[in-house]
Amino acid sequence: MLTAILVDDDYPVLRYLSENVAWAELDIELMGCYSNGLEAWEGSQRRWPDIVITDIGMPKMNGLEMLEKFSTVNPQLRSVILSCHNEFAYAQQAMKLKASDYILKESLNVEQLQQLLSHISADLSKERKQTAEALRYMQIEAMNRSALKENFLKDTLYQLSWTKEAWLKQAKLNGLMLDAKHYVPLVVSVDRMSDMIRTRQMNDHTMVFAVENVLQEVLDAMHRSVIFRYSQHELVILVCCVDPTKEQQLLYYSIPKAIQAIKQYVKISVTCLLGRQGDTPEELRRILLPMLNDGSQRFYLRENELHRYEKAVFSTEDMYGEYAAFFSKINDSLALNLQEQLKNIIEEWARWVEDHRFHPANVKEWVLQLLMELQMKTMVTLRAQPNLSEDKLYDVVNSIHSMEHLKSWIMEYLLKLSRKLSILSIRSKRTEVIRAQQYVIQHVTEKLTLEDMAAYLNLNSSYFSRLFKRETNQNFIEYVNMVKLQKAKQLLEQSSKTIEEISDYLGYANKSYFIKLFKREIGMTPSEYTSWNG
Predict the structure, then answer these.
(1) SS3 for 38?
(2) How much is the pTM?
(3) pLDDT tens-digit readout, 493-514
(4) Which of 138, 306, 375, 488 could form a disulfide with 386 if both were Cys (CB 3.0 to 4.6 A apart)?
(5) Which residue range(s) make up the domain with 508?
């Protein structure tokens, strides 16, 4: 659907056109009516119109000045000028701004304007279709060109018999000008690709394509280079040069500039590795393969920066010597819901790992063991399902390529677990209260009353009520409802049960009461919660 605005300081004209033009039949959305050009310009900043129907003589900004501004942001803009001025100069200026028509108000009728808008709509639709078709062909061509370059790169890395002459000849056949005395290779990796795909709702090809375009634009101004796609998250750059020392110095200026441009315009973080120079396909192969195939070399590098590639050396120490101490501190912080303390412990752990530079595989194995033990404790203590299955947890941790990413992911994961545990945590030192809380958690689907709980504990109900309130700062029924509602949230997220089935399952005799209670405590109805989490 096309969009349009009406601009005229004559209110009756605005009202007449807005009410009498058959906008819906023309498949045009009338976005707004404005009394002058400045008001229309400011009111359209969030969404530019396709069509502007405007008067010329208006206060603050006249129609022609306004159209000139709109044309700078939307070259495809179509306009219709309604005016009392029957002067050639006005009409001439309007035509320079590509106005579709210049209509005198005294001769205006709705049928005439509708016919004109119908023609404009058809022209714009045809133009957009042609533009989309051209863009599609350009994308296909770019993808084919990218595929050819990718194949050539992989032939370079794995075709052992190529001489430089044969290599250059093959490059030329693929449309690549690589003739040079020296080459400086770089590997560019998209940081946190899985997170980017989830949060940006873009596939890996689109993201890498966007990164390549920005890189090419920045590098073309300072270098002669060719960019290749190597994998779902990696690009290889070959910089052709005569003086590699001078070229590398220049790269320390141009690559950070490109990294920042990618962050600013595409909102993607990339990390770049700069390799030593190579003069032949064989030398480039020996330089690039370790840079591409051994991800452990990049594990301790800062993200969104340029680094010179160097073979990493890792500690052979046993990192499990500190496992019990860290587990104890993390477990205590989780149990007491001390989130700031938990953050500090994770920071301390990350510094310890980075200072010792343990092998990335050992670090991930250590993390997996820690998280699996914490999840097991959650399941046993609170009878709650883990956030991630063991297989899923393994996949997520092993897909992380940097210590920086691993630290932030662990922090997010444990803080989420802490919030979950804080709702159901047992803080009292009194055995009777601890037993009561454990019983509620383990029998969450049953109908639980204060009297039944006191009888289970062999206590007077009034005494138990005061004791529970003093120890937990909430009465027993409030605690029961809190646990049940957390279970309800879990069922709404993870099961196909209806609201009525969940209400019955949790021991509520009245569905209306359950919905009312849920809304009061959670801030939305169960149906709204399901939609919000969908």
Answers:
(1) helix
(2) 0.57
(3) 777 888 889 999 898 888 888 8
(4) 375
(5) 431-533
